[in-house]
Write a structure and sequence with these properties.
Length: 153
């Protein structure tokens, strides 16, 4: 399998399709698709990114990086890999790409939120050096949310 990760407009048809797949999956798990926490225009600004993972020419995953109110911190959003492609390290490669982008943009830290019923995502983030932190913003009072933070070096 040849895997590449490339920037993509967050409102492109491919991005829209991948985000819709993730939203459907989150809706099945939580009864809420999580769309309220992501606006594609948030990653179509300076120091932000939306990327798509391509495997042998097929879009198989995505992820986003958006600025936070503290200009030194960015938030990782919408990390997703199609169910048929999981277990191949694609989400880790998406995360690595986003972390490297964050460093290039001058961020010193990253934050993210995932759901309590997503143990594979939680394990990935913890394995990549993210530490649990207090939930923030619209996740602060959501018992289904687990938030993480990582200092970039």
């Amino acid at each position: 399998m040849q895997l590449t990760i490339e920037p993509e407009a967050a409102n492109s048809p491919i991005a829209t399709q991948l985000i819709a797949e993730l939203s459907a999956e989150l809706g099945a798990i939580y009864g809420d698709d999580g769309d309220g926490g992501f606006d594609p225009s948030d990653v179509m600004v300076p120091r932000a990114a939306f990327v798509v993972a391509w495997a042998d020419g097929q879009a198989v995953g995505c992820g986003a990086l958006r600025p936070m109110p503290d200009a030194t911190i960015a938030e990782i959003k919408r990390v997703y890999v199609c169910s048929s492609m999981r277990g191949r390290g694609i989400s880790r490669q998406i995360m690595n790409y986003l972390e490297n982008s964050a460093r290039q943009f001058g961020y010193i830290g990253l934050m993210l939120e995932t759901g309590i019923q997503q143990p594979a995502a939680m394990a990935l983030y913890e394995n990549m050096g993210y530490a649990r932190c207090d939930c923030y913003s619209l996740y602060a009072d959501d018992p289904r949310s687990v938030c993480y933070r990582k200092e970039l070096k």
